[in-house]
Amino acid sequence: MADGSLELVKVTKRYGETLAVDAIDLRVPAGTYCCFLGPSGCGKSSTMRMIAGHEIASSGDIILGAQNITELAPAKRGTAMMFQNYALFPHLTVLDNVAFSLKMRGQSKAERYRKAGEVMELVDLTKFASRLPAQLSGGQQQRVALARALVTDPGILILDEPLSALDPFLRLKVRTELKRLQRELGISFLHVTHGQDEAMALADLVVIMKDGRIEQAASPQDVFHRPRTAFVAKFMGGHNVVDVEEGAVSVRADHVRLGAGGAAARTLEGEVRGVEYQGATVTVVLGTPAGGEITAVIPEDRFFPEPAELGETRAYHWAKSAEYVLEPA
Ligand SMILES: Nc1ncnc2c1ncn2[C@@H]1O[C@H](COP(=O)(O)OP(=O)(O)OP(=O)(O)O)[C@@H](O)[C@H]1O
Q: Is the pTM of this model over 0.95?
């Protein structure tokens, strides 16, 4: 197995006039579950394809362990990629699909089947070994794709939106499975997702991209409690971005309370523009004097003694200590 610590140094990708990835720097220590998030077109897939070798970087270096892999062929990198559409061979059995890339590497049949059997055991596919992909459910096909990527003992596994084709129930189940597998194998997973909740649930390291650049790379807790910019605060959700004397600050929606606060709080007043009951909490949207909006998430036992009604004007506050100063965009 390759040593799985990954470093990107000023990695850039241009497609003609389009600057898809703009000189990004990133360190992913070995054994990290790393999730990539960001709006459509921000360069996530291009970054993954450059790491896997399906695309060559326009400039910059990609270092895996002690080796510069920037221009190596995909099979020589010690990386593996699981594609969104699984890309299984329809005419090959599960066993042969999984063993395929070892055949390409010239390993003997006995060795290929031994190794494929081992990986199939790991992802619970052994009983389907002789089936064709068409005879499997979506979740099972995905496990074949996963086994196929893992059979080469990669130091890094790249998953480009692996859960998007699955229904919500299966998505949750597979997500737990992926995390278990990553821990068990001890290798890094680089996982592209559109789900903020998915990234928060899985990642040791969350990388948020915007316009080909990395806006923030940090632990889920840091990204949530200390978003670097207004973009990150808004993109991750659960935050308000407010302009105060010190500049733009983020305030978590669950730190906003109805009623006036004391000297250590910032108290505003505005129209109640939305009230949504969510079970344990109630989400209240309030106007600000500057013409913006603040979202408050209030525990139901605090809300119902003095419920806010649509259209009325209410005071609300948050502790100044709950403000987190953002970097200018
Ligand atoms: N083969 C290509 N040729 C030209 N432009 C491309 C190519 N692949 C991607 N791009 C452009 O590069 C930019 C980044 O694309 P990329 O697929 O990396 O984004 P992404 O963040 O993965 O998006 P999504 O979340 O929609 O998959 C986009 O502007 C896209 O149109």
A: no
